[in-house]
TrEMBL record, chains A, B, C, D:
Transmembrane segments: none annotated. Its EC number is 3.4.24.78. InterPro entries: Pept_HybD-like_dom_sf, Peptidase_A25. This is Germination protease. Belongs to the peptidase A25 family. The keyword Cytoplasm does not apply. It comes from Lysinibacillus parviboronicapiens. NCBIfam families: GPR (TIGR01441). Coiled coil: none annotated.
Amino acid sequence: MQNLNWERSDLIDESDEVVLHQTREQKQTLEQSSGIQVEDRNAGRVKITDVQVNGEGEKQIGKKQGQYITLSVPTLTLEDKDGFQQLEKALLTNFKKLHESIAWKDDDKILIIGLGNRTITPDAIGPYLIDHLHSLEQIDDKFVMYAPGVTGQTGYETGEFVAALAERIKPKLIIVVDALATRASSRLCKTVQLTDTGIHPGSGVGNQRQEISFEMLGVPVTAIGIPTVVDAPVLIADAVELMLRSIAARVAERGKPSSKLSLSSWQPDTNKELDMSLITPIFGEWATWSKEERQQLFEETFAASHSQLMVTPKEADYWIDKYATLISSMLTKWASEL
Amino acid sequence: MQNLNWERSDLIDESDEVVLHQTREQKQTLEQSSGIQVEDRNAGRVKITDVQVNGEGEKQIGKKQGQYITLSVPTLTLEDKDGFQQLEKALLTNFKKLHESIAWKDDDKILIIGLGNRTITPDAIGPYLIDHLHSLEQIDDKFVMYAPGVTGQTGYETGEFVAALAERIKPKLIIVVDALATRASSRLCKTVQLTDTGIHPGSGVGNQRQEISFEMLGVPVTAIGIPTVVDAPVLIADAVELMLRSIAARVAERGKPSSKLSLSSWQPDTNKELDMSLITPIFGEWATWSKEERQQLFEETFAASHSQLMVTPKEADYWIDKYATLISSMLTKWASEL
Amino acid sequence: MQNLNWERSDLIDESDEVVLHQTREQKQTLEQSSGIQVEDRNAGRVKITDVQVNGEGEKQIGKKQGQYITLSVPTLTLEDKDGFQQLEKALLTNFKKLHESIAWKDDDKILIIGLGNRTITPDAIGPYLIDHLHSLEQIDDKFVMYAPGVTGQTGYETGEFVAALAERIKPKLIIVVDALATRASSRLCKTVQLTDTGIHPGSGVGNQRQEISFEMLGVPVTAIGIPTVVDAPVLIADAVELMLRSIAARVAERGKPSSKLSLSSWQPDTNKELDMSLITPIFGEWATWSKEERQQLFEETFAASHSQLMVTPKEADYWIDKYATLISSMLTKWASEL
Amino acid sequence: MQNLNWERSDLIDESDEVVLHQTREQKQTLEQSSGIQVEDRNAGRVKITDVQVNGEGEKQIGKKQGQYITLSVPTLTLEDKDGFQQLEKALLTNFKKLHESIAWKDDDKILIIGLGNRTITPDAIGPYLIDHLHSLEQIDDKFVMYAPGVTGQTGYETGEFVAALAERIKPKLIIVVDALATRASSRLCKTVQLTDTGIHPGSGVGNQRQEISFEMLGVPVTAIGIPTVVDAPVLIADAVELMLRSIAARVAERGKPSSKLSLSSWQPDTNKELDMSLITPIFGEWATWSKEERQQLFEETFAASHSQLMVTPKEADYWIDKYATLISSMLTKWASEL
């Protein structure tokens, strides 16, 4: 029995810099000052955010230089066939565009790596994708596919595994599929992130997993990530923030504080500037702290216990299966036209 | 694809009445007034709580009349062989005692039902137990074993399934093994609850799962439950409570409020009476609310979204496997001596 | 670990009486004398044999009174989409016809039982079917579905399990899906047998599995069987028979015996009357024995060892999956029109 | 869906040269003339055959130069704990001896490869071994472990996969575990073969799988093989041979031919010289052919059909599990003492 190495590649558009610059002007400022270019688009029900990080941006936000495309269907449910179809279509379009500069030859190989731990439901999306590809009647003969398992199980670094195959196979492209952690529980299983920067641990200490990237392997690496878990302290801080903002917004609207509110179905605009001091009578000075300050407080309080917990949708198994099917279908369509 | 019916049989010793009466005197009062008898014991590292609920108690706390034995090893970790051994030993002792009044005949059958959904890791403990029993070299010929799956998968009520088998097999005893939800994230995968009351939905509306109990089936039903998940709103309220109490305790101790505290490793006695008003300057009047009031606020805020989330240990798969092995071993030893 | 109960429900059209009466006149004689009515049809590439056994027939051939419909695509391969589609279509047509006399009410239930052992590939077709039905987006709410596992695993007779559910659910119809043994290796995974007689052990001694049938349960039982294995002695006798007939046919044709023949691609008509004495110079008097006499000799020789062996297609896993998909699809279409 | 590459590495001691030289004198002759040295030993109930093939021997029998150790417990059954223990002990002793010349350093790695197809029961022994090793509480940190799957599933040669890892990891030793085909159905799941020659396709045409050997990888490769299947034509020829020899032996003994014999439990010495002409009255000249001539006849007759069939024990899943446990245990003990 070994430690679990949960993938911790947060979504780019949850970086503080990206989140905090919401208006057009703020974005221009962001771009000029920090080397990060953000652009929002829609394709039907799919919200797409393109983030371009250059060398300067990499220093600023600790996210690697390159292109990040985030596709979300905020209202997606398991039964929403239309939503999944729109998501697959938009993913295919953007996947094509991301790779259109590659000049394919007949015997070029594509190495597809399904990361993650098959026995932990929300981490199993990579292995499930490989299973789905295996079960196809016709497998594209460009594909070489593996689910390497996690380091604890195999006795070997996943990054080294991929490097070993890349050296020998010399693929034209490596595609890495992985479950991600998100900071926003509302985005769980409703978002796909594409990036040409590969898989890379953040600037945090202690993470010894090797990077899987062009820089390490000499081969372009595209990562497809689906957020399937939130850490417990993140969820808690997130929840407190949402609760406080909901009440502040309501108080602002109604012009009257109330000690015990029923919020039910009413949902405030979470990005609006709010005067949090309106609710200090009930929630104290704490209400005016930033979300990050509160999260730090929770992390300190629960250092020992809650960091071992993960938060995931109750129907995680069905979501994982849907995404494995969707990505398998998208990759097959894309490859058939190369 | 069908809805998931997560088992919601909360632990008896998380009932407010049980929790709030901690001292010997309080317990006596509780017993006299409400028909609930609580007794704490230790068996090595295993903390054991016996709760006896009579007819009066059932009305008071909505927990069914009968005996509840909760066994916990608060410091249990996955690598802690000694802890698991002590837990298995204590479980066996108490399991024997719970069934000592049964007069076994040679051809008596014991129906073992592993509840839960195999594809959701923290809910898979029942099916995994049945797998473990199947893989034994020697299966006790008293045992009849099934993992019925969840209603959505089979098109049929689990309770009806058990009733159908009970009618035909006429077992002397039914043992039902199930994953439970807990209110205390610190107890996840560190506790086992034994009860002779079977499996029974709470007083909550909308739960159409049938009870599995002596009253329904005419056969004694023993339930073995292991808490493997916490609901997200429960976790959040729990976390806020713990955070506020930690700070209040610290403030009380140091005699000085501080706006941004480092709490790190210091852990307060969570049951101590605390003057929460000490921290209202920072946290507002809200700090003086009861945990339940705060939880209700979170539940209202997140009605739509977070109720679909579950919180579970990151290494849930290993925990599940450990408990399936432990219970399989305990049941086999117990049955071999009948 | 327990004994394996491989299903031994041979195909009806492999009964000697059915096999030996090939011409129209022979069939009429068979019908009059023995109460067995045989009719061959074709539906595109699907060969269909209808066998009707009455009370007299049951005594004659030891096959239960009732209707048996065998559908075969002799040239079926794993890649043959058209073949599988034709087979599904013909199966649906015949399945409808077999049940057209049932008058369905709104809340009638259909109990679907997937027999067999999930861990033995060629025996896993029943459990795989149930898995396939589970994974459907929309499950017909008439369906109640279980894969009961094998007696050794559960400590309980499969027949008793089905009886228990039937008593409680009171279904309008029970559908049992199972892997079968065949005598003809060429039919492995290329044939489906439908029958309204349920599952019933032959007249052989020692088989203690309970019958699953209308007579036992008071509910109509339709069995869908797919031959996926041959017993080793059957295969050997079959092979020797085919070899001897091939050579005899060739000798007859060429008019000259030859001591060491190359038979390669040439395939004789296996049903033609052949003068086996032509090959006694090489193969001895033995060549003139009946296939059954030779099989008995092999069974005696290998009593101990080879009876523990089974013969199955190398790609059994893919075949099983194909049939689980086909039957799941057929049942769903059929039920949607009730 | 892809073609299945069943491993075809026959057991060394089924080579004609090894089989036919049974006496001490014959063995000496074999050694001198053909470069093959054969030695039989016993360790309790375990029969051990050491075969040493040199360069000359490799040319003679088409088996690669090196050492082959075959361990068998002819009377092994699934319930035979003593037999499995003796087999594990003898395997460990011989495994140690085979590797005693390796001088281990602290950070040396051992690459363990579990070959085979997880979804085909008798081919799953390699993947099951890797699963067993994963599930151990303590995994030796020398081990790097993978079950690469089959070429059709991954789009990549298994040999290339191992080569890729070997190049990068630079292990001190590669251990390859695989299911084998045998010619003797009586040896199925009762034999383990150790060899330092790795995995190498025979001289047969059409097999494009790469060799996994010291010569290819520059690293010592030890293969552990367990025979779990027989090809259908091999089984048939084997069965006919056994039947004919049984009858001939009996006739010789009783001195009287009989047209329809009951052979039941009596088992002849299969290696004894027999006068097969005794049974030509019944079985013709064919009885005097060599087994190989008969097998060729069957292979020609069944070229199309039966070559797609495999013969395997009915309880293959339990056998596979037993061997995965045994080898996992043996490897762990061995590595713990390095």
